[in-house]
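Run log, item B.
One chain of 187 residues. Sequence copied directly from the ordering sheet:
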Amino acid sequence: MAALLAKPDRLRPTPLGDFRHALRQSTRSEHKALDHRLSKLDITTREGLAEFCALHLACFERLSLRSDHDLLPPLITALIADLAALGGAATRPNAADPGVLDPLAVAYIVDGSRLGTQVLRHRWAVATDSQVRAAAAYFSLPFEKTRWPATCQALSRVPVGSLRARRIANDARRLFDMFNAGARQIA
């Protein structure tokens, strides 16, 4: 129970007043750290894309043991295919078990990662290496435009300051921490 109440000062109502915005604010440092680590990977090269895929595969596989989020199986399948296309040479980081997770925390991370993938797809698309271009499964997965707004609406309905809000925020931070720890292993 104490873990659920950790860092309540990081979960304050925002000027916009809803939990989605409070969650974004409370996970900002973990999210920024992950974005910084991922930006160091050159996904236009075999090594950089392989490390990117290995990190995501390790974390999504670990997450799939704790969640039945419907995007995890196709994401995992695509990452396995891309690593195979790249020769499978990347070492997968050891992703820590995040423990029991609120489904909305998982949706925040997984559905949010699909938004980030849209940005990264443009970086990957300029690759000139034919093997990198052949590793297209992950970046070619369809993007469901209604998924993120639905996740945001669900998060906005969670009362700020509630026990569930604190649990979601703590779970989201643990998931960012899992990705960040994996990224540190490959950097």
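Observations after the first pass:
- The mean pLDDT is 91.
- Residues 64 and 70 are 9 Å apart (CA to CA).
Flagged for discussion on Thursday.
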